[in-house]
Amino acid sequence: MNPSHKKIITKLARTKQINKFRGAIVCMLPFSLLIDNGLLIARASQLTFIKMRNILLIIACTLLFLFGCKKDKHPVPNRRFNVTIDLMLPDYHVNPFIITRSSLGEMVGVSGVIVYRGGDGNYYAFERYCPHDQEFSCLVSPDPEATVASCSCCGSRFLIASPDGDVLEGPSKYFLKRYNTSVSSNGTYLTIYN
C-alpha cells in the first residue's frame, strides 16, 4: 500500500471522519486499498452504488447537453424550386439582380431571390422574404452600394457579398436564407435551387 494512502486512511480513522469523506476516498483510492488491516471503508455494494450514481449523472448531463439547447429554426418557409437563367441576357449583367419568376411564370423562392456575383466568380442567391418581419409585403432589396440589402419594413441590413447573408444591423436575429447555385461548364447558365 502506498504510504500516502495509508496516512489518509489512518488520519480519517483517528478523527472519525470516515463517513464524511467516504465518497472522496472511494473516488481517490483503488478498491484494493479500501480494506486495510480490517478497516472497512466502503463495502462493495456502496462502491457499486457510487459508480452507478456517477454513470447516471454523466448520462443525465449528456442528455441535457444534447437536447437542452433549443435550435432556432430559420423562420423563412422552405419552398422547393429550380430555375435556370441565361446569364447572357442583359437583365442579368447588373450586380446584384433580382429574380421573382421563372420563364414559365413560377415563383422563385418565397418572395423572389437576390443574386450577387462575388469577386471570385461564385454566385450567391438569397431569399427576399425578410426573416424578421415574416410578411410577404416586407421585401429585402439591394442598396445602391450593391453589397448590402435592406428590409423595407424593419430596416435590417444584410451582407449579400458573402455566402452567408449575415445581419449587419437592425432587429433581425436571423441571416438571409441562402439558396444553392450552380453555373454551367461554359458559364452561360446559372441554376438556382432549393
Task: Give the CATH class of the largest domain.
Answer: Mainly Beta
Within CATH, the superfamily of the largest domain carries the name: Rieske [2Fe-2S] iron-sulphur domain
Radius of gyration: 32 Å
Global mean pLDDT: 79
Instruction: Tally the helices.
Output: 3
Shape label: elongated
> What is the chains' assembly state?
single chain
Widest β-sheet, arrangement of strands: 3-12-11-6-5-4
**Could you tell me the number of beta strands?**
12
CATH architecture designation of the largest domain: 3-layer Sandwich
Strand content: 15-25%
Distance, first to last CA: 67 Å
Question: What does the main sheet amount to?
Answer: 6 strands, antiparallel
Overall tally of domains: 2
What's the order of the H and E elements?
A: HHEEHEEEEEEEEEE
Return residue spans where pLDDT drops below 50 for at least 5 consecutive residues. Answer: 18-40
Brief digest:
With 194 residues, the chain is α+β, with helices and mostly antiparallel strands.
